[in-house]
Amino acid sequence: MPHITVDYSAELAGVFDRHAFVRELHPMVLDVSGSAGVCKTFFRPASDTYVGDQEEGQVAFVHVAVGLLPGRSDELKGQLSEDVLALLGKHLPDVPGRPGLPGGTAREVISSVEVRDLAGSYRLHHSPR
């Protein structure tokens, strides 16, 4: 049931190990949320990202959205957000002081996480093989 979307600046593609990240992310989300479902994650690279008044590409950005069925407390969702941020930190480059990320000029990476309730209209269909 957890639906996860990871939007990220395209210049992180060569340094953000998405496979390793999701391998750790899925069991963590299930454990912290108490979900009995199966995590599904979409990674979406964004070719144009802007942060504040910085020029395009100066700051790389990652945003993770985790959608869960309603019923979790704000405290639990906040804890899950903190845990996901910590995991992102493990899988993203430490760029301050570097001349730029491969394929781009970003000198900073900003990460954010939102854990939200899925809408009441949410439905799931699984087609057997």
UniProtKB/TrEMBL annotation:
The keyword ATP-binding does not apply. GO terms for molecular function: 5-carboxymethyl-2-hydroxymuconate delta-isomerase activity. It holds the Pfam family CHMI. InterPro entries: 5-COMe_2-OHmuconate_Isoase (IPR004220), Tautomerase/MIF_sf (IPR014347). The keyword Oxidoreductase does not apply. Keywords: Isomerase. This is 5-carboxymethyl-2-hydroxymuconate delta isomerase. The lineage of its organism: Bacteria, Bacillati, Actinomycetota, Actinomycetes, Kitasatosporales.
